[in-house]
Amino acid sequence: MANILNTLVHLLNILAYGFTLYYASFILRIPFLENKFKDFDPGQFKYLTIWNVILQAVFFLICVLNDCFGTNAVNPKKRPFVRKLKDSFHASLGFPIAMFVGIIFWILMFVDRELVLPKAIDPYFPWWLNHLMHTMIMVTTVLEMIVAPRQYPKRSRGLTILVSFMLMYLVWIHVIYFKSGFWVYPVMEVLTLPLRIVFIVSLLVVCIVLYFVGETLDNYLWGKKCVAVTESVDPDLKT
């Protein structure tokens, strides 16, 4: 029964994030932003938020595949490929990116919403879409951490995947800036170059810290149940 419930929740999450991606890509229109980025406009794919929505949709699709063809055992003798993929994906990208997007967004909203979501956008950007993108992502990734076990990859591998993704996105927003003449995020426009560098480095540090938060939380929730797992049994595991 628990396995069926997990699969249903995973399917609901796929539908929710699939709808979010569809609405943001094909229905959401913000005229003044379209005019602002008229020289080069990748649409919603400018934003880390939408890339995170894609990551979450892919992750929960992998969860469904694991439910059907893999295993959710706490300590399987041999993890199928889909289980290894699920564990590594959630550890390296699913949890830290979701928490990063949600936490940084709401902190900036609290400090000054004009730095991240100007009030001028409100007539075009539904409140429920905002919560799907910036609140639900944290809820679903934490719930997945609580209800399903995972075995973290080697720390060096997990951090390499995470940092590589963030650096690729950093390159992407600079490409958009040089092609359009505008920063994707208003906060970047009010910072001098030195402060912008400090800001970017600080965000990368926060993202890395969130990886360790996820690792620590997972160890707290599941560590004692996985004591029989050692690197000698599965070389993909951290020590």
Which key terms come to mind for this protein?
mainly alpha; single chain; 0% strand; 239 residues; globular; 9 helices
Task: Write up what this structure looks like.
The chain has nine helices and no strands. It has helices at 2-27, 31-36, 48-69, 81-112, 127-134, 136-147, 155-180, 186-189, 193-222. α4 (81-112) packs across α9 (193-222). The longest helix has 32 residues, at 81-112.
Structural class: mainly alpha
- Helices and strands, in N-to-C order? HHHHHHHHH
Mean pLDDT: 91
Number of helical elements: 9
Beta-strand level of the residues, as a percent range?
under 5%
What's the end-to-end separation, in Å? 33 Å
Tally of DSSP β-strands:
0
Task: Please write out the topology.
Layout (H helix, E strand, L loop, with lengths): L1 H26 L3 H6 L11 H22 L11 H32 L14 H8 L1 H12 L7 H26 L5 H4 L3 H30 L17
Helix pairs in contact: 1-3, 3-4, 4-6, 4-7, 4-9, 7-9
Structure summarized in a few sentences:
With 239 residues, this protein is mainly α. It is built from 9 helices and no strands.
